[in-house]
Amino acid sequence: MSFIQTLRWFGPDDPVTLDFVRQAGASGVVTALHHLRNGEVWPADEIRVRKDLIEKKGLEWVVVESVPVHEDIKTRTGDFSRYIDHFKQTIRNLGREGIKIICYNFMLLLDWTRTDLDYELSTGAKALRFSKIALASFDMFILQRNQAQEDYTDDEIKLAQVYYSKQDANDAEMLTKNILAGLPGSEESYSLEAFRNKLHTYNEYNDTTLQHNLLEFLKEIIPAAEESDVRMAIHPDDPPFSILGLPRVVCKRDQIYTLLKEVKSPSNGITFCTGSLGVRPDNDLIRMAEEFGPAIHFVHLRNIQREDNGAFIESGHLEGDVPMYEVAKELLIEMHKRKSAGMDDRIPMRPDHGHRLIADGDLKVNPGYSGIGRLKGLAELRGLEMGIEKSFVI
Ligand code: DNO
Fold this sequence. Notes:
Bound molecules: D-mannose
Structural class: alpha/beta
Mean pLDDT: 96
Helix content: 40-55%
Low-confidence stretches: none
Shape: globular
Largest sheet: 8 strands, parallel, barrel
Order of helices and strands: EHEHEHHEEEHHHHHEHEHHEEEHEH
CATH architecture of the largest domain: Alpha-Beta Barrel
CATH topology of the largest domain: TIM Barrel
Number of strands: 12
Number of helices: 14
CATH superfamily of the largest domain: Divalent-metal-dependent TIM barrel enzymes
Strand order of the largest sheet: 1-2-3-4-7-8-9-12
CATH class of the largest domain: Alpha Beta
Distance between the termini: 11 Å
């Protein structure tokens, strides 16, 4: 009753190849047609070509991560109806090709965000890190967003001033790039000027309007997913709080509860990403894994270590603030329940991100997506899972 072990693969240009995925012992691949423009329908023949490539290596494409949601859909402006039709068609095309789990997110303008992509841990390994103070310094002094100060406490403002005063032009450029250039899978990137101009048009959005737009979107796409026997798995916001004045509505337990309750369907579910949700101490991950169990269609296992002033480091998969043993146990129990109910029981899981280790060498990997670092994560999680399974008395 184990997870389907998967690794993310960014397509034929990814230096971490499908052969590597196979040798790592994963059976599943998580990928997307990254070369298509946001909002385009994914053509059936392109899906098939990608699927064949994966299957030729003896692997299976089990999850799409992600089908990007066009910005017009999130804001419900412009051409949003047409883009929703495209999204539905993409669901149908994927379903017809046998790819039944689709991960997506509903973050405005930016996808996942980090301020430091090369943070050196005490072991010498490199990790990703997010610092609220660095973000505040970008927001107030580089982006110079109107009224940005209102979003920070006096202490945060002081710390951000100190942080900014220590930065040289290169540091500031690097920080801007890390935040705006789009981390792998983001599919969107902005120059400072373009981002500033865009942001001006977002003043009217708040949690209420954004959540409304998300629910409207779900009401339209979930029936298409049901017809195609596809399960939609929304990814939580990362980090799970508002940044740069933009609302975020998939951050915590109550928000997830609402989106599942308002559109009840076996096709409306979540990606349970422990690294994203775990940043908030008010998210009780063990309880959430139990409560949302049946709606968990895909799992990202990753750990974070919270630090002072709203910062966090991506720690080793088994070390940090995410109680990985207990969470994994809850998810394995969920799979057992499914099996007893005669249902499709195995949830695809990927070790989310990995450190960059010496053995990763100079390979130009996508930030967070090293080969050896993720292999370490996968191996640890595989061992954890086996230990839990063997201890079950069923
Ligand atoms: C980061 C990922 C995100 C995620 C999207 C889901 O490593 O977790 O890129 O794929 O936000 O749509």
